[in-house]
Amino acid sequence: MAETINLYRRNPGHWDVTDGTRRVFAIRGGPHDDSAEFWVRDERSGPAPSLGPFATLDAAVSWATSTLMTESS
């Protein structure tokens, strides 16, 4: 379980979730593009396909943070 979880807005449509030392999820998408969907890329163990779509930023952030809060150590 991550002891620290940070969310950073890099620029419109780009958010990074970190565990205090490195980016673990990249959230991309939003109302600025045609799809208005959000996608989460899991970067904990190297490149991985994006998960989603999530209908809202809240849903994408909730999924990423709950994953970090419940993973085994």
Helical percentage:
10-25%
Secondary-structure-based class equals: alpha+beta
Return Rg in Å. Answer: 12 Å
Question: What is the makeup of the main sheet?
Answer: 5 strands, antiparallel
Order of helices and strands: EEEEEH
Shape: globular
Strand runs, count: 5
Strand fraction: 35-45%
Low-confidence stretches: none
From the N-terminal CA to the C-terminal CA, the straight-line distance is 5 Å
Structural write-up:
With 73 residues, the chain is α+β, with helices and mostly antiparallel strands. Helix content is 19%, strand content 38%. It is globular and about 35 Å long. The N and C termini lie close together (5 Å).
Summarize the structure.
The protein has one helix at residues 57-70; strands spanning 6-11, 14-18, 23-29, 38-42, 50-54. It is an alpha+beta fold. The model has no long low-confidence stretch (mean pLDDT 88).
Summarize this structure as a short list of keywords or feature phrases:
73 residues, 5 strands, 1 helix, five-stranded antiparallel beta sheet, 38% strand, alpha+beta
Task: Write the topology of this structure.
Layout: E1 6-11, E2 14-18, E3 23-29, E4 38-42, E5 50-54, H1 57-70
Antiparallel strand pairs: 1-2, 2-3, 3-4, 4-5
